[in-house]
Amino acid sequence: MLRACLATLAVVASGVIPLPAAAAGPGGGPPACDVDVVTGQCRMEISEDPDDPLKEGGTEPVSRTGCFFEGRQVPCRTADGFFDAASGCYLTPVDSPSTLFGDGRPYKPGTKFYRCWKILDVVGGRPEGIERFESVIREPGEPATMDPREAARQVVATMNFVAPHLGLSPYVQSATREGIVNVPIWMWVTDPGQTTTGPQTKRATLGGVTIEANGTVDRIEWSMGGGKVVTCKGAGTPFSRADAAGKSLKDIADSPTCGHRYQKTSRCEKSGTYQVSATAYWNVHWTGGGMEGDIPLDFTRSVPLRVTDLRPVLVDPNGDPVKVITPPRRCA
């Protein structure tokens, strides 16, 4: 016991001790290792996850995942152990505890003991600190600390996201529910709100980790058919009959925020219509458990749109009946 106390005094007297260099990951970056905060075992790589089940077909990878001490990023594992956000230490499993109370008190079966290298500051991305004499003790029955990334996934899975309903003009304005070649189509979300266009926030505690998730829509991509895609930053501007009052079709203005003009009819498309779909791309940024990250999601809804051209009308100068010229139905 005396030797242990003397060793403690020697460590404290030495002041702040720079952390030994961590085992570098690929490319010399942070260690590519996610360490279980209870067992200290490396369980998976910290990396982009192209197979994330929450991505819902999204194209952006999970990013900014790492370990954080007082808001500053630190290596998740070093020669002094694995980072534990709850204690602010790098922990290494040991067989028995070091404690000023001695080893006389009974511990429940399954209790785990860890040597603690306490972080005092982070300078230039490198933690600095001292080895603490008192061990970190985790008794069975205490809330198990869940991997913050897994907790974040579960919290995000409970958030209510809905694919937006689509507004199109003059599709919704015309009696025949058709668009017309070279006449502006306005596109907008008819039900903007927390679930469709955001923002949306949720805070919950799982497995001893409190997660706060904030979801925002990055963009809405409109696939107009025929390979045409229009990217809009917001929900779009609703079209009303007042926007076309007293105007010919050629004088209808383009949408100020989200619009498209078709250059050919949908006659040759499957079912004679363009399949118009809008995909809302979300990013959910989460923080908790000394970590943070981003989970991309996307949600899509589609509607059919028939696009025709105006049939030319010729009036016989001699007063004969009006003749309507029907364009040939060619798709070549």
From TrEMBL:
Secretion signal, residue range per the UniProt entry: 1-23
Keyword list, A-Z: Signal
Superkingdom assignment: Bacteria
UniProt-recorded name of the protein: ATP/GTP-binding protein
